[in-house]
Records
---
Amino acid sequence: MTMGLIQVVVTLLIAGLLVKPVGTYLVKVFDYETTGLDRFFRPGERFIYRLIGVREKESMGWKKYVFAMLLTNFIMMMFMYVIFRIQKFLPLNPDMIDNMPPALAFNTAASFITNTNWQAYSGENSLSYLSQMIAITFPMFTSAATGFAVAIAFIRGLVARQNNLGNFYVDLIRSITRVFLPLSFIVALFLVFQGVPQTLHGAADATTLEDAKQMITRGPVASLESIKHIGTNGGGYFGTNSSHPFENPTPLSNLMEILCMLLLPTALVYAFGVMIKNKRQGWSIFAAMGIMFLVFLSIVFIAEYNGTPALHALGVHGNMEGKEVRFGISGSALFTAVTTAATTGSVNNMHDSLTPIGGLVPLGEMMLNNVFGGKGVGLLNGLLYVILTVFICGLMVGRTPEFLGKKIESKEVKLASIALLVHPVLILVSTAIAFVTPSAISSIANPGSHGLTEVLYAFTSGAANNGSAFAGLGANTTFYNIAIGLVMLLGRYISIIAMLAIAGSFATKKVAAATSGTFRTDTPLFTGILVVIIVVIGALTFFPALALGPIAEHLGMFH
Amino acid sequence: MAIQNKAVSKDLIFQAITDSFKKLNPLVMIKNPVMFVVEVGTLITLILSIKPDIFGVSTGGRGYNVAVFFILFFTVLFANFAEALAEGRGKAQADTLRKTKSETMAKVKQKDGSYKELPSTSLRKGDIVRVDTGEMIPSDGEIIEGLASIDESAITGESAPVIKEAGGDFSSVTGGTRVVSDFIIVKIITDPGESFLDRMISLVEGASRQKTPNEMALTTLLAVLTLIFLFVIMTLVLIADYLKVHLDVATLIALLVCLIPTTIGGLLSAIGIAGMNRVTQFNVLAMSGKAVEAAGDIDTMILDKTGTITFGNRMASAFVPVANVSEQEVTFAALQASVKDETPEGRSVVELARKQGVHWDEKEYDGAGIIEFTAETRMSGLTLKNGIEIRKGAVDAIKKYVADKSGSVPVDLDEKATVIAKAGGTPLAVAINHKIYGLIYLKDTVKPGLKERFAELRAMGIKTVMCTGDNPLTAATIAKEAGVDEFIAEAKPEDKIAAIKKEQEEGKLVAMTGDGTNDAPALAQADVGLAMNSGTMAAKEAANMIDLDSDPTKLLSVIAIGKQLLITRGALTTFSISNDIAKYFAIIPALFITFIPPLQSLNIMGLASPKSAILSALIFNAIIIPLLIPIAMKGAKYKAMSANKLLSRNLFIYGFGGVVVPFIGIKIIDMIVAAFHLA
């Protein structure tokens, strides 16, 4: 356990050290003034702008920004859907894989455009190389960039003096050219070095020592693997995701993947502080997210090391079921906590096999959806709770609540309410519908509380745009494909639209001067309140469902 | 205002109880989404009390359903009672005012110039009326002819009559006040139903009450929390069904009601109404709740020096001897010059001399010739029976006076007079016969206690700006003495507006007081404008608050009330949400226990039985509303301190307290319920 603990501490230390430099770099990326980066990146970008007819200097109000975002995403999703449906007739299909059925193609397109990467299919036998590259890897870049863009737009709104959130196309392209492509390139090389394949050759045929014939699937894995984590996407090349030895071959690749997941969501919070010219504010939110992350991590870590009473009875300490020996308990627990915190959704162990309380951790992180959270949207969700916290507690200092000098009034509360409402409602309503649909119930592998958790997990993963699977649920049915597909789309776009509308409303507000009578939001006290509000609202909403699922299962182990 | 704000009377309570039943009307209830949900829940449990098994087998049985029904019913009543009680106070105030507004006859000028008696309700804008001694002024208007003393006690509560005359800043009269002497010709400026008194009645009664912006925002948030919990409970039924856990409908409703923010939902409108009432009790009439809320947000206050920060009349603060005169001599000379002077300045000289330990015999001065102050002579004094002439007055007037008597002017007189003038004071020279003894240092005095209040304001982050027509030197002295942050000297009315606009551009909210017509634009520009009732109609129309006592320092109290209003809302919201934690620990185990026995370990309070746990949580949820009514009415305790301290304090009381109190409360109620075998 000590070794495991050291691994965790070292990983988090490296992640912590990267926050400031990467955050500073991000600020430069989205700064519209001329920066040193321009010399290197501008020529290529200008070519792209010309090619697609983007007026670089055009500024967008919130409505225009949202429209550009929705339009771009819609066209990409349609494109992906078509590719999946006709992949059989397209090139780069050495393993002769068939077209995807409509419901699955819809689910997969929705999944990858929303940065969820929920996989109702198994990559190795459902997708051609072309599909993997242009309908899976490509949206991994654009969906992450979309999330980044909207978060940056929101921050601009917070500090703006007019309804100008920037230019969506410029933000989208810059995040790809200046952040995701260079980083992915480096990480892909590192993964190849660790043994991850990167090839366009078809599956290899091998003869085992027992002289058995075995077909080993492979493909352009490293390139997908790198953006999968940097973009907090999570969709694996293979069905077993990052527990597959070709996706995540060594403890070192495991470390790299964890760092990649944490890199941008954490750095973005720091960048937020720099952009609003109040670093303390950035750190206070960072601290709130960090505290929640550490608590969740500790829970899953301890739960997995403790194992279960049944295992104890057999003299086995710690729960290794569903885990890879090369990662061990600590490497698996850390990966679990990180992948659901950053809403990546890749897995290096089977979450279905975690102890009940261990399994509660990824579920809980996705329910809160702002423990750093996915690319951009995690910060947005965090700021949503900041706004609510300021509104509830700000009143207690005797002033109309204000955040960064912008008053929070009826309009903002209404919009924030929509964003707040959509997440639990999507999860609970879709779970409830599943339990009254006989075909949906028949997909559940385990009875009782565990089966309940499987369904709850699937919809939570969809709504949080996480994409990790609890497994144990046969999700490739028309019901789940359509239902989870819709949940992913609504979960992503409704809250983004509501939050950008708030940004638009903030942007035109007068900035109130800060005095000693102002409610300070950049103090440790505020960090504490924020954590409490997030946890209490989250707990109050999901406690009954959790009580029936993992909590009942956990308590049942001792009876 | 001639309104007695006695503690809640019996009548008021009785009326409030009646009203709480009237408010059960669903069409009224729906305006409060949180309590509307409770009311619907009450109806469902009523049905369950009559036919327990209508929605499937009732595990609780009829008795339990009836108990849940009654608790819910009382929860709704308690919330209605809080609102009715707050409204009742306003209504009582309005009734008193309405008595003032009894039908009067008015002498209205006809086209031929004669006056005809018509009922006051028929008066229209522009009508000319004549009001004689002892008559009631029929409606609001401007005096166009005459001068009269008017008893305004019906509105202000101040019994001393005030003088009003045509022209100038004191020409406006209010309907419902009475002429005590002389007569006036008044031009009516309002139509029936729009007069000051009408507006006042509808304001205190809450008839024209609209939800304030912050209240609307909070209502939205509470409605959404309610909606979320509604989804939580409804989906729970279906999810639990998968585990073959069939939940009791009455218990589910109990859980829902416990979770939705009923405490703040039930008290929210009472808090708003009571906040307005508190302002009214201060004899300040707020034109809207929005204005009271805005008062809490004020960052800068612009205050007139004269009348607001200082008393406005100059008072003696020192006696300065000149040449070879001793201080005792000049003090005594000044005293002699002022014994018979009844002006505030004169009295302040006598007062100061007494304080300095001078004794004199009043009788000595009986029969002395009193020289009154006139604009030509610019001095006053006494001529004693023995012919000694004692004078005090403007320095140059006294200089001329002694020069005429061929006396000499001490060399250091001018110098010392200049020192006083530079320090912001007014020098008065004192002379006996042809000899100048020295100077009286007259100074405008800062009202006592103001310095401390300004310091408090600074702690709260509010900046004070003093506006004065004085020269910069005088202004600086007073500003320093009063402890204001900034001052504007030699201020013209335009400067006030400019100052307000400048602050507003920096993103600050500005409050100011004013009374004159030339203050009107500034009052309108300010976020909170408090007009004096003694001021002109233009000022009153432009302002969003009117102080009936015409005391400008009230602005400070209004700001405190505004802050208190917002704090109370935030505090009770926090309390309400914090309460849910304990309620969950009471109800969740109780709900599932029969199906999933291990969940018993969540029953950390060790409640007696599932039924008693649910009923206890529900009872706690209901009685906390009336228990908190006093806080809703009086407002959460508020002391001036910095935002961070205030937050820590309130978080501890209402946040931490909100988590702990229900654990204790529910446990106690459970013990009682169990002891009496009620469940």
Note: Chain B is about 50% helix and 15% strand.
---
Amino acid sequence: MTRFSAFSLFAKALGNNKTWPELWPDASPKPAYDAIIVGGGGHGLGAAYYLAKKYGITNVAVIEKGWLGGGNTGRNTTIVRSNYLYDESAHLYDHAVKLWDGLSQDLNFNVMYSKRGVMMLAHNVHDVQSFQRHIHANRLNGVDNEWLTPEQAKEYCPPLSIDPGARHPILGAALQRRGGTARHDSVAWGYARAAAALGVDIIQNCAVTGIRRGPDGAVQGVETERGFIAAKKIGVSAAGNSSVIMKMAGLDFPLESYPLQALVSEPVKPVFPCVVMSNTVHAYISQSDKGELVIGAGTDQFVSYSQRGALHIVEHTLAAITEIFPMFRRMRMLRSWGGIVDVTPDRSPILGKTPVPGLYVNCGWGTGGFKATPGAGDLLAYTMAKDEPHRINAPFNLDRFRRGQLIDEAAAAAVAH
Amino acid sequence: MSAHRIAGLGRIDRSRTVTFTFDGKAMQGCPGDTLASALLANSVVLMGRSFKYHRPRGLLGAGAEEPNALVSVDRGGGRFTPNLRATAVEIYEGLNVRSQNRWPSLKTDFGAINDRFGRFFPAGFYNKTFMWPRSFWDKLYEPTIRRMAGLGDAPIEADPDVYAATYAHCDVLIVGAGPAGIDAALEACAARKQVILIDEQDELGGGALADPALWPWLESSLNDLAAAPNVTLLSRTTAFGFYHDNFIGAGQRLTDHLAEPGHGPRERLWRIRAGEVILAQGAIERPLVFAGNDVPGVMLASAARTYLVRFGVAVGDRVVLMAVHDSGWRDAFVLARAGMKIAAIVDLRAQVAPDLMAEAAELGVPVEMNSAVIGVSGRHAVTGAEIADSAGGNRHKIVCDAVLMAGGWTPSVHLWSHSKGSLAWSEEWGAYLADKPNENVRCVGACAGKWNYGTGVSIGALPTPDDPATIKAFVDFQNDVTAKDIALAVREGMKSVEHIKRYTTNGMATDQGKTSNLNALQLASGALDRPVQAIGLTTFRPPYTPQTFGMLAGDAKGALFQPTRKTAIDPWAEEHGAVFELVAQWRRARYFPQGGEDMHAAVARECLTVRSGVGIFDASTLGKIEVVGPDAAEFLNRMYTNPWKALEPGRCRYGLLLREDGFITDDGVSARLAPDRFHLTTTTGGAARVLNMMEDYLQTEWPDLDVWLTSTTEQYAVIALQGPKAREVIAPLVSGIDLSSESFPHMAVREGTICGVPTRLFRVSFTGELGFEINVPAAFGRYVWEQVWAAGQAHGITPYGTETMHVLRAEKGYIIVGQDTDGTVTPYDAALDWAVGKKKADFVGKRSLARPDIVAPGRKQLVGLLTDDPAEVLEEGAQIVADPRQPIPMKMIGHVTSSYWSATLGRSVALALVQGGHERMGETLHVPMPGKTIAAKVSGMVFHDPDGSRLNG
Amino acid sequence: MILIHCPYCDQTLPELEFAYAGEGHIARPTDPSALSDEDWERYLFIRDNPRGRHHERWRHIHGCGRFFNAVRDTVTDKFEMTYKAGEPRQ
């Protein structure tokens, strides 16, 4: 692997950039591996990397039906934060945030993790109570999250309108300074390159069509468009398509897949310094390094794999954004797109073992998967290597739906009275 | 003088001039000019700077595809718009235009240093560096990258303009009013269909506008369509997205072209549902990829023709055409016939049709076949072109001031792709054409590949004797993606077109690849040695061209973004100085300060007045559902946790509603008015959800039950009158109801009149005091309120708001669903065991209460919490620990759900969810706050009047 | 915005009039207490979520208010049919 640095960039440039090697070789499947990861997004590639790097399991293949990072990795709004309420969630997401910090150096690939701060707006008394609860819990969990008055919020994010007469006035905000954004594609490419350098085969354009199980019920390998590939351990990290893959192993899952839309504006000079989220009006926004305003919405209402969202969702999202940032009304939408997010009943992920021996799963991240990328990869790798979950992902087991021990962050923010 | 106006040509109005400014310099154009044509007429060819290398740029095209000439328009007063294409800006008197992405000026841009060192910034360079030292990323590298990136400045003032939105339905929607679109419209019009014909330009006609031979036909056709009652013509309107079931979004620009925009909407969003959609979007000419193809003055041949024919502007005095397609020849002939000097037609092909050769000869245009432009001289404007034959021989230079590119045509299948129609590769066009439709849609004209532009070849990059790795031959002009960037991406393992796009950013600029996608595909195809079809095609996403946020938000702004629901009594509260809070979609009075009271003082006074006298509270926002039918009691018995069948008419009951997963979702006091009629109440935020849930069970699980549900939330105003003097206040106003405690006890309901208005009078209390909730028809709400208010004056009545309501109920340990419960709380957790019918075989959520982790010990349970220091009011949301000395992360065992200063008790009170809380009575727990830890004892939840004697007074 | 045919109103109307109501034909067990934890979990949470033909429920919430069933392809989002609640699975 050619080490990336300012020096190598300079040296290669002198040779007119003619000698850069492939970031990762496009591998053809071997007959067998020690472990297979189904799904070449950030999570799956991360799992392969950590399997090889931390657990010495290098005879690994990542199998992707399309192109690397072509699912939700390449379609999300790249927000990274960990200011979750429950201990289980806070520990899970903060594990990821700790890995984000230093990931570029670890991978020798700049994933452009930018700690510009994530601010969540409180628009009513209920929001204030809910965010205060988060802030107090985060403080005692060692997760940074602080309360800002409307004036402090405006100072941190000048485009914010804090007009008290607004339809949804801003009563304050919770700010996680360590939160921010990263460059989504770079995460997939960085993991792919680093994993491949450790011996992992990256296999694209190879859809899994079946999961073969032996008489003992344990997995034996995967059937693919390019033939059978044997492995005693299979980790499925297929986001919106998880239900489909798990069904191949005979498992029914508590998942539904919904369209989630996002959009960007035309690029403009720096105007927006952080990430702002408003759950009350259902919108979030940041500005990419390229200058585009990156804006996300809530999900469309019905189950779909079409990656095609509805116009009224975009209308509502932009109405919400321009309500909070009236100066952006003259900005223009450049591109909108849809992803497929797999949602569990408690909107927390499922990350761990399955009832099928040798089959491991990482799914159900809903709208929040990108921020967890390094953590999810690391924990899936741990679980596969040790055949038992790490204490951080142990609560995110499949059995919680039977037992009733849900980890329901959204319900915790429920609005009533 | 290079570009200039030619007398006698064009469709502009030469009888008048329009003055505008570009970078502060005043210039003249004519009505009908775009900014692009007007600047050219003023011999301005340098119009912008590119994104990454800050290279000087002029016009590439004449339409929506323009990647280079981006400008900012400042109308003053917050009306600032960046990144507008000069080709789409219509000039008007006083138009104020600024160039962008340059400093200090368009001609002298320090950012162009990036261009000098371009080879150190190849595609994806940022992934490979800026990693050391680590801390520099946040402080130096990233801020620097961000400053260099972006195009125009962002608007920084609130936009004063308004936007509108509308729906439209038609039999046939035709997108694009060129010859094919107009023909389709005439045909549909004749068939008596309802037709909408839309076009993005100010003038309908499309390609016909650049062909004078078609002008008579165009005029008569448009006259016919304009006169037809069944045809709607929309110009300046862009169909930007094709959504499910023939639903098209279109943006109409109404005032940007006007010197005086007036007060109407700036833009209008059209949401069009069409029986059939006909796409006549035409085709966009492709540039050619060669060194120097971005120097201002190098442009599409068709654009040069448009500037000449439509705007009467010659793009240069001596023009070289670089063609691989016949259409460029025809464009050059038009220019030549108008008197422009065509210095050479250079064509990569060995031969073309004899008629082209003959016409060139006739016009005296030199032709160089089997040759290519290999370089362009000039930095801010073209000064010459270097040409070689395709083997690299015969290098020579031609002096010229414009180079035209004719690279063939790319049909605009964007909307077709939005509709999920499939595409098929056409060798003839060197492009993808519409194949199988997914909606009721078809393409016509050039958009369908059915238009005679002649023939040509498609090619990734023109041959050059120079090392391709050392030249800058642009593919994506705006994003500065060169042919060697594509090669580098492939070299680095990017094999799918999506990877190539994302790695190089090709096709991701504001033109979204309209001129670059096909060339990039051809280059990748060559580099990968695979056919174009094997590489795939990036998916087109809405919008077709960038669309204004304000237009997409439409009229959903301010009060119309989301209506604020107000009760009948809301105006009274406003008149009496209430401070409001927003709850769900409602606004509710939070407290009524008097004199200079702050919230604390006002709430303390309101609380004490209710406890000692009487208070009046607007409870109208409570959800209300009328449940009627012979099976009404059976239905409620199945829905709620507690038994309902034995409830006598005239009595009320607290109802607790679970989701099927066993967690509390709503509660409320409901009354049985008759054996077959109940008046339900729900929480303010839960009304719609509860009704939907009940309808779901009723319609789909128990359709055999004979029950009707009707939302009555807005039918009634609800006036809560609470306090020991409540009965005295209403006694003189009520008739037909015996108010005595014996005949009208707590948790009873009576029907009668109050102030002559029919009422459902509930004797209920959410304060712990004697109380009534007066339900009257909403139209009489304010009237009755004012009568009660007047009657209460003698008793020292006070209005109170939600904050006092919260304090009073907390003093009594009454929970608020959504505050003291959070969607993870069971009835047992909330100490509401008494509200669960133990003998009931089933109710919604019952089975879930038996799940292993629901019956396991250690669940969080609702308890009271009394701080050791009675003056200390805990923060709501504060976390509770058993051991305050442990290190972070601490083991948290619960949190404070409600906390208030109780003026009645002279101390603070709190409710909290605590692990195993019911077993911890009397235990001291700790609330670690920044800088201090607060000790508090677990207690019961009822702090005031525990035996409830005041309720029954 | 998809168009949806309400089998009660017998009209095809835009999505904004309707509320999605989850997978169809998941009947509430008549005696939930008799169910094992596994079976109860299946009723509460396990969903088919197929790529392709999907049975689902909609409510014409801003119209007649009725719940009804639909068969829709989740890849193309196209409805195959809608039918009244209580009618057999199609």
Note: The first strand of chain A starts at residue 35 and ends at 38.
